[in-house]
Amino acid sequence: MRDRLIDRMVQVFGQDQKRIDHAMAVLELAERIQAAEGADPAVVQAAAILHDIGIHQAQLKYNSTAGIYQQIEGPPIARSILEGLGWPAEQIDHVCKIIASHHTADLIDTPELRCVWDADWIVNLGTDYASWPIEAKRHTVAVVLRTETGRQIARSRYLG
Ligand SMILES: [Fe+2]
């Protein structure tokens, strides 16, 4: 299932290797956090692989990759992928809620969301936010991250 989801994500992102690499980095970290913290592994995998899946549609429709547009465009794409793979409705709904709140974390706060939330932040702290001052990173790790495992990984990567 993991490989099939990755295949579908790669199909959607096409030539956009940066997005593919980002999704794979978030997946790897989300799985590490899930293994330590506990959560439904299938939901964590799917949500990590598909969390930014609406980004091209957001760009096309709104000429913006802002989180609010991704949150609108991502869930329907994820839903059709997961329905095509025969997933149960309850897990599909959970994955879609995580995708819809992965920039705000306001719709739900489940262990599965926390794994993906922390993994995305940790990856972004090393890429998009790499130039942030150390104090901003320290604040993010302390206040924004939601799992102890995520904080430990982030500290050893960026605050060591
Ligand atoms: Fe992301």
What is the global morphology? globular
Q: What bound compounds does this protein have?
A: fe (ii) ion
Q: How far is the first residue's CA from the last residue's CA? A: 36 Å
Write down the Rg: 15 Å
Mean pLDDT: 95
Going by CATH, the architecture would be Orthogonal Bundle
Strand content: under 5%
Question: Helix/strand/pairing class, anyone?
Answer: mainly alpha
The poorly predicted ranges are none
Number of helices: 9
Total beta strands: 0
Largest sheet: none
Total separate domains = 1
Let me know the CATH homologous superfamily. Hypothetical protein af1432
Q: Secondary-structure element sequence? A: HHHHHHHHH
CATH class: Mainly Alpha
Helix content: over 70%
CATH fold name, please?
Answer: Hypothetical protein af1432
How would you describe what is shown here?
By secondary structure, this protein is mostly helical. Helices cover 74% and strands 0% of the residues. It contains nine helices and no strands. It has helices at 2-13, 17-37, 41-50, 55-62, 67-84, 89-100, 111-126, 134-143, 148-159. It is globular, with a radius of gyration of 15 Å. The termini are far apart. The model has no long low-confidence stretch (mean pLDDT 95). Bound molecules: fe (ii) ion (FE2). The site of fe (ii) ion has 5 residues, from helix 2.
Helices and strands in order:
Elements: H1 2-13, H2 17-37, H3 41-50, H4 55-62, H5 67-84, H6 89-100, H7 111-126, H8 134-143, H9 148-159
The chain binds fe (ii) ion.
Fe (ii) ion (FE2) binds next to helix 2.
